[in-house]
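pinned: reference chain
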Amino acid sequence: MKNKVILLTAMFLIGSFLTAQTSFSTSDLFFEQETYLFQKKEVIDAPWNIILPVNGEEIPYAKFEYFNYPVEVEGVESFYFDLKGYNIPFDNENGQEYALIYYVDPAQGFWPATVYVFGTTDEEWESPAQDRGPNKNGNGGPPGHEGVNLKIDGFCPTSSIPNIPISYEQMEALKDLDVYEPTYEVPTYEDVNYPNGGKVWLVPTNYLTASDDCTWQQMSGWPADVSEILFESSLITFGYIDIEIGVDDQ
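pinned: its structure tokens
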């Protein structure tokens, strides 16, 4: 009984701490995590190679910034993110649209793959006129936006992502508990990369079954030329902070 009281007290304090630490207005937020998305060259039975610029050439790439734990945005516990794309090709005549997705890497032989759509855009981004800086395309923008021609930012409620962190009641019911190990929402259990991380890609929406923001969809096809997709340079995780709690068995 003593052990349970100690454990529940610790969990209450942790819950209070997380609530206090993750309630912000968006104007107060400074992203804590980042990764870059690049074109890759396909390699059989090995990790694909990132394509880097040669001799100063301009190549498509993107910078993805995010929090790896839930923050409160507009009163909703959410995954909050910002993606800036550079030199992204747009086919304005045919209505080019891109989606920022989490790609649930399937076990070998399973297709189509499931994806989570964070957000989409169907037009080139242009900073407000008052923010533009000297740039070859007139789209310098505020600091950090020089050369940006695609932007997807916003938030998705954690309730729209299926993996639910383990509850206090479930924790109490577990036998021989000595570590609190929350469930990640990204990656999901079905992802072959679990628990190391998930893949975030920028893809044309014509390869998805649908492109509604903050929804689960599927890949409906695969491009003949994989240069149409920007792939992760590192895996991401999103979930609740790992906190170890020792339990006294004496």
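why pinned: The longest helix spans residues 2-21. The chain has one domain: 2-239.
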